[in-house]
Automatic annotation (TrEMBL):
Subunit structure: Component of the biogenesis of lysosome-related organelles complex-2 (or BLOC2) composed of HPS3, HPS5 and HPS6. Interacts with HPS5 and HPS3. Interacts with biogenesis of lysosome-related organelles complex-1 (BLOC1). Interacts with AP-3 complex.
Protein name: Hermansky-Pudlak syndrome 6 protein homolog
Start and end residues of each BLOC-2 complex member HPS6 C-terminal domain: 401-773
Pfam families: HPS6, HPS6_C
Its biological purpose: May regulate the synthesis and function of lysosomes and of highly specialized organelles, such as melanosomes and platelet dense granules.
Length: 801
């Protein structure tokens, strides 16, 4: 059914300060320039130089004083003026052709007051020909007035302009901060400057050299790039242009590096330029409306029923809800932007009409929220909204019906039964209480105060999210905005049932913005390092349950979609691999039945290992840390075995010593594994004190010696007193003594000897007495003394007494 265009009266201007003067200027001067503040509260009217007083009027809707200014004949009036949306107050910027800039503010006292005055062109060597005020910046095109350039030929004089930028931000309660000048373009022609919420358009003017009249530039400050476009050629080229990095371009050099743009073409025949959220629109003298998008592409939107008669005729362009609105004289035409079809044509009561953009997203008041997205039309009669009227025959469903319809779709997706769940069943079935509670709220059964108290936190979060989206739409600090938006979305998804679309969406966020997503996880899980290389968390158990949970049986995620725990491990492995083992250890301390930590499924360390890849392709350091931190006997023994193969003796010993006394069997197995290596070679000798500490306290010396004997290398030849050069030294009693001491009890036992070998541990303190020395003659007289001499050896001692 065909829609009907409507003009809804928003204000008869009586609620603006200086309403009479406002109506007078709107009705009397067709050349007046009209601008609206982003919050919609201020209207700025600037008359051309030479007009009768006042040349400047700022009207305020609601409380606040208007500002009227006039400049006497002979004194220059401002070239342009802008309203800036500063948080604490409204600001007005006036720019003169000489380069003088004045910043006025309201809200810091009664009326308006001058905050700062400065010069854009110190020394008087330039003349400002165009100026614009994109978000947080002041950009102007100036003509250099050097004497040498004035004597050059026309082609050289055509490149005597340059485009400059300075940051302009509030400072304190009543101050401004105007940054240093940065030159964007050198040696360029005269450009007109138009700005949308995200981009700055540099368009040719009537004084632009004809050979360049078909070229325009699009600068995106948030992206740090400039696009040079030739709409009639269908060509566009992008280059880096970021003042923060010191980028600047010589316009002539820039064009020489872009083939095809200097092809001979007629200048663009433009009657009216209009920046819109979709890009830059222009109306030519044939009545055709074209659009240049921010990436440089261009297309024809449509053709008006009536073309502008001359340059003096008034025209205005604007867009709303996919519709192009064009005011040409006293005619309003509405065209479909996708097809170019004329939707409606209206005759207005006046030809003094101005189109105003709607307030920026997030800056509307409660009254304007109801008319969000519509285009506003200003005349001396009043302020109107251009929109579409819904046909009477089209009945919209009630809020209560919409609740039950959406709830039935939601519960149907979660249900396992084949029968269709209907809204009528939800109304009568008491099992589903949530939609019935929401419906009762919408019906007014809950008082507004109780409802506001319940939803206060949610409304505050929602408003913050809407303001964040508005910043992204405006192109203000895009990187920080996307990061914050990703954090909000991850936190929201963790409060839902992570399955199906929600799980896929979580995977997409982690792939697109891994750093922001992990930052959200840090906040949700409240992760903090404890200073000892471990992590601690104060998150409630239900949050950990969603993070550690696995997909239900028969509902495995599709290929490429990871469960939450595997997704976190993959992200952490990419960003901070050294924190992956502590995170898995912390996750193992959480959990409950079926959570993935203590349930019958795979243990968490094995789920984390699966994220690292197949066995043999994983990073060795991470794999060892995950195995050692798992607390599982088989995994720890596997890790110690790998350390032994790498001959990392100290770490293998420390892994055994790190086990708590509640794991005596595992410590004993690690000790036996390392004792076998100690028996085979001498590369563990330097770590013998650690091996002694690892020795089980209940191990008897006899058991120790039997273990050593099992792993001693076989002797193929009789032992030699000294090893061959280059051969492995054998195990000696001196090395063995320390281990045997560790297995024995402290001090000599008072009871019977417990072991056959235990007596060798005890030190008698003093050596046995030395036998008396005798001569050979005395020895023959006492044959019993020969027992002191070894067999086959004689005693060659002399009596000294």
């Amino acid at each position: 059914m065909k829609r009907a265009g409507t003009l809804r009266l928003l204000s008869d201007l009586s609620n603006f300060s200086g309403a009479a003067r406002l109506r007078e200027l709107l009705a009397g001067d067709p050349a007046v320039r009209v601008r609206c503040s982003p919050d919609g509260r201020h209207l700025l009217l600037l008359r051309p130089p030479g007009s009768p007083a006042p040349q400047l009027l700022v009207a305020v809707r609601g409380p606040g004083a208007e500002l009227e200014s006039a400049w006497p004949p002979g004194q220059p009036s401002p070239l342009d003026a802008f309203l800036l949306p500063w948080p604490a107050r409204s600001a007005l910027v006036l720019v003169w052709e000489s380069g003088l800039v004045e910043v006025w503010g309201s809200g810091v006292g009664p009326g308006w007051r001058l905050l700062q005055s400065t010069e854009l062109c110190p020394g008087g060597g330039a003349r400002v020909v165009a100026v614009a005020a994109p978000r947080g910046r002041l950009v102007w095109c100036e003509e250099r007035l050097a004497g040498a350039e004035s004597q050059l030929g026309p082609p050289a004089v055509a490149f005597s302009h340059r485009v400059c930028v300075r940051t302009l931000e509030p400072s304190g309660e009543a101050g401004t901060n105007l940054g240093s000048t940065h030159i964007l373009l050198h040696h360029c022609p005269a450009f007109g400057l138009l700005t949308s919420r995200k981009d700055l358009f540099l368009v040719p003017t009537a004084t632009t050299w004809p050979g360049l009249g078909h070229i325009l530039l699009i600068w995106s400050p948030s992206k740090g790039k400039v696009v040079v476009a030739g709409p009639c050629l269908g060509l566009s080229h992008g280059k880096s242009l970021n003042p923060g990095r010191g980028d600047t371009w010589d316009f002539r050099t820039l064009l020489r590096g872009l083939p095809g743009l200097l092809s001979p073409r007629e200048p663009l025949t433009v009657h009216t330029w209009a920046p819109t959220p979709q890009g830059l629109m222009w109306l030519d003298f044939r009545g055709t409306v074209s659009l240049v998008q921010p990436h440089g592409g261009s297309r024809t939107v449509g053709t008006l029923q009536e073309a502008p008669a001359s340059l003096a005729g008034s025209a205005a362009l604007g867009t709303f809800h996919g519709t192009l609105a064009c005011v040409l004289g006293s005619t309003l035409e509405l065209l479909d932007m996708s097809s170019g079809q004329l939707l409606e044509r209206k005759i207005l009561s006046t030809d003094r009409v101005h189109l105003l953009e709607p307030p920026a997203p997030g800056m509307e008041d409660q009254e304007e929220l109801e008319t969000r997205g519509g285009l506003r039309l200003l005349s001396a009669v009043g302020l109107f909204q251009v929109g579409w009227k819904t046909p009477q025959s089209l009945e919209l469903p009630s809020a209560e019906d919409m609740v039950f319809e959406e709830a039935s779709k939601y519960y149907q997706r979660r249900s396992l039964r084949g029968a269709q769940l209907t809204p009528e069943e939800l109304r009568q079935n008491s099992t589903f209480r949530a939609p019935q509670a929401l419906a009762s709220i919408l019906q007014g059964h809950v008082s507004p105060s109780a409802l506001l108290a319940t939803l206060r936190a949610e409304l505050r979060d929602y408003r913050g999210l809407e303001q964040l989206k508005a910043q992204l739409v405006a192109g203000d600090e895009e990187e920080a905005g996307w990061t914050e938006l990703a954090e909000h979305e991850v936190a929201r998804l963790l409060r839902t049932e992570l399955m199906g679309d929600q799980l896929a969406q979580l995977n997409t966020i982690f792939q697109a913005l891994p750093t922001a997503a992990w930052g959200a996880i840090l906040r949700v899980l409240q992760l903090q390092p404890d200073g000892n290389g471990h992590l601690r968390s104060q998150a409630p158990p239900d949050v950990w349950k969603k993070v550690l949970g696995v997909t239900a049986a028969g509902k495995e995620p599709p290929n490429g979609i990871l469960p939450p725990f595997e997704l976190l491990c993959q992200c952490l492995c990419r960003l901070e691999p050294q924190w992956l083992p502590p995170f898995v250890e912390l996750a193992q301390q959480q959990g409950g039945p079926g959570w993935g930590a203590g349930g019958p499924g795979l243990p968490l360390y094995r789920r984390a290992l699966a994220v690292l890849g197949e066995e043999g392709t994983r990073p060795e350091a991470l794999e060892l840390d995950l195995l050692l931190g798992s607390g599982r006997p088989k995994a720890v023994l596997q890790a110690v075995g790998q350390l032994v193969q790498k001959e990392q003796w100290e770490r293998a010993l420390e892994a055994g010593l790190a086990l708590s006394p509640s794991s005596p069997l595992l410590r004993s197995e690690i000790f036996k594994l390392l004792l076998a290596e100690f028996a085979r070679h001498r590369r563990l000798d330097a770590h013998l004190p650690l091996l002694c500490r690892l020795c089980p306290p209940d191990l008897a010396p006899a058991e120790l010696l039997l273990l050593l004997r099992t792993h001693l290398p076989d002797e193929l030849e009789p032992p030699a007193p000294f090893p061959e050069p280059g051969a492995e030294p054998p195990l000696t009693v001196g090395l063995l003594r320390a281990l045997l001491k560790q297995t024995g009890t402290q001090g000599r036992a008072s009871g019977p000897v417990l072991s056959l070998y235990e007596d060798i541990l005890w030190d008698p303190g003093t050596p046995p007495p030395t036998p008396p020395r005798v001569s050979a003659l005395q020895a023959s007289d006492h044959p019993g003394l020969e027992a002191w001499a070894p067999s086959g050896q004689g005693l060659y001692v002399t009596d000294t007494g």
